[in-house]
Amino acid sequence: MTDPARTVLAGLDAVRSHVEDLYRDLHRHPELGLREHRTAKKAADALRDAGFEVTEGIGGTGVLGVLTNGDGPVVMARADMDALPVRERTGLPYASTEAVTEGGGGEQPVMHACGHDVHVASLIGCARLMAGHRDTWRGTFVALFQPSEENGDGADAMIDDGLTAKSPRPDVVLAQHVLPFPAGLVGTRAGSFLSAADSLRITVHGRGAHGSMPQAAVDPVVMAAMIVVRLQTVVSRELAATTPAVVTVGSIHAGSGPNVIPDRAVIELNVRSYDNATRARILDAIARIVRAECEASRAPEEPEIERISSFPPTVNDEEPTRRVADAFARYFGDDARTVELQTASEDMSEIPRAFGAPFTYWAIGGIDPERYAEAVRKGTVAQDVPVNHSPAFAPVIQPTLDTGVSALTVAALAWLAPEPPPEASGPQGPGVVVTAPPT
Asked: Which of 47, 135, 193, 325 has the lowest tally of Cβ within 10 angstroms?
C-alpha cells in the first residue's frame, strides 16, 4: 500500500530551490510585528500561484489561504511571520542589514533571530506540495500566516478581525517552531509544552527627600529592594518542588542621582508557568507581596500593578499529538523524538481556542548536526550553540527546511490522507532536552 506522505514528498526536490530562495529572501528582509507587509505579500502571492483562495490583511498583515479538495477534514497549519529588534551577527551572505526608524528618530536593527523565516518558507513549501498532489488527499488545507507573535498580540488581532468567520472551522490546527537542537530532528510532546508568560510593571510610591534626611522620606528604593527579595520565595516556598515555574525581575528604575531619595520606583518582571492554576497562584502571590511591603513601609499611595504582556500556556491536545507523533515515527524514523518542557511562550493556541478546535505544536531542529555533536562532546552546548533571539542564531538551510516542509506535510496528511500503520508506536528515539529562550 502506497504511503500518501511519501508520494507527496517525492515532489520535495521540485520545490526545494524555491523554498531555499524564499527563506534567504525573508531572512535578508525581516519585519517587526504588524509591519510584515512585504512578508505577507510574498506569502499571499505564493499561495495564489499554488491555487489557494487568499484573504489578506487579517489583523493588519495576516494572510489566510484555503485550498478545498473535495469532502473531508479541514486542517489548518499556522506560521508566524515577525522578526525581532536585534542586530544580526551571523556573518551570513544573506544576513539582514534592515533597520527601522522609531518615534525618537533613532534606527532599530531588525533580524529574524527566532526562525520565523523558517516557518514561513516551510509552510509555503508544504502548501505547494499539497496543491500539486491533490490526487493523494481529500478535504481542505488551510495555510495561515500570523503577524506579531513576538508581541503576543498577533493571534488576537486576527481573531478580533473576524478570522473565525473568514476561514473554514478546522478539525485540527498544526504549528511548529525551529529550536536549537540538531537539524533533521522533529520533536513532539503531549500536554504542556510551552509556558505561559506574563510580564508585569509595578510602580511603588514613596515620599522623596534629601539623601541626608531619610527620616523625612518613604524610600521607594528600599521598598522595591524588599519586594525583589521577597519575590524569590514565591517559587521556592509557595509551590511544590515538582511544579515548574519562574519569576524573574528584569528591570528596576528609581531615582536620578546618588543624593536624592525619589518618590517612586518601577519594577518590571516576568512570570513563566505551565497551567492556569499555577499562573493564578503566582500572580496573586506577587500582588500580595507588593501590597504588603508597601504597607510595611507606610507608602503614601497604593502600588500600581500593570500586566504589560501575556502569553497563554501551550498545552497540546493528546489525540492529535499522538496521531502526529505516530506519523512522524513512520516517516522520520529515529529522527522523531519526544521533547521536554520548553520555557518559550507562544500565542498560537489562541487561534484553535477561538475555533473550538484541538491542536498540536511541535519542534524541529535547526543547528548543524556536526556542530551540535561537537558541542555535546566538549560539554559546551550552552556556550557554542546559539539559541533563539541571539544575534548569532541562524538555522542551517538544510536539512532544516526539508524537515520543516516534510513535518507539516506529514502531519496534515495524517488527517487528509490517513493510512493506519501496521503498528502505531508513537515517537521514537531518546528524548531531546531543549531549553528554548523566552519570547
From this structure: 135
Establish how many alpha carbons lie within 13 A of residue 116's alpha carbon, considering only the half-sphere containing its beta carbon: 31
Q: Which three cell numbers stand for residue 36?
A: 510584515
The distance between the two most distant Cα atoms of the chain, rounded to a whole number of Å, is 86
Q: Which three cell numbers stand for residue 217?
A: 522620606
pLDDT digits (tens, 9 = 90+) for 104-152: 778 999 999 999 999 999 999 999 999 999 999 999 999 999 999 999 9
Q: How far is CA 326 from CA 139, 333, 342, 376, 427, in A?
A: 21, 10, 21, 28, 6
Contacts 24+ apart (CB under 8 A), 224-229: 224/252, 224/254, 224/265, 224/267, 226/293, 226/296, 226/297, 227/202, 227/267, 227/289, 227/290, 227/293, 228/252, 228/267
pLDDT digits (tens, 9 = 90+) for 159-215: 999 999 999 999 999 999 999 999 999 999 999 999 999 999 999 999 999 999 999
DSSP per residue, 80-110: E---BS----S--TT----EEE-TTS-EEE-
Helix (H, G, I), strand (E, B) or coil at 381: helix
What does the alpha-carbon distance between residue 288 and residue 295 come to, in Å, rounded to a whole number?
11
Q: What is the pLDDT of residues 354-408, one digit of tens each?
A: 999 999 999 999 999 999 999 999 999 999 999 999 999 999 999 999 999 999 9
Instruction: Name the nearest CA neighbour of 193 among 316, 312, 79.
Output: 316
Taking the C-alpha atoms of residue 127 and residue 313, their distance in angstroms, rounded to an integer, is 28
* Spatial contact of 290 and 297, defined as CB atoms under 8 Å apart: no
Answer yes or no: are the C-beta atoms of 362 and 324 closer than 8 Å.
yes
Q: What is the pTM for the complete model shown?
A: 0.91
Helices (H), 268-317: 276-296
d(C-alpha 270, C-alpha 321), whole Å = 29
- Cross-strand pairs, 272: 197, 246
Q: In what order do the strands lie in the sheet with 186-188?
A: 53-58, 62-69, 139-146, 74-80, 172-182, 359-367, 186-188, 336-338
Q: In 3-state terms, what secondary structure has residue 274?
A: coil
Distance CA 342, CA 431 (A): 13
Phi, psi of 316 (to 5 degrees): -70, 135
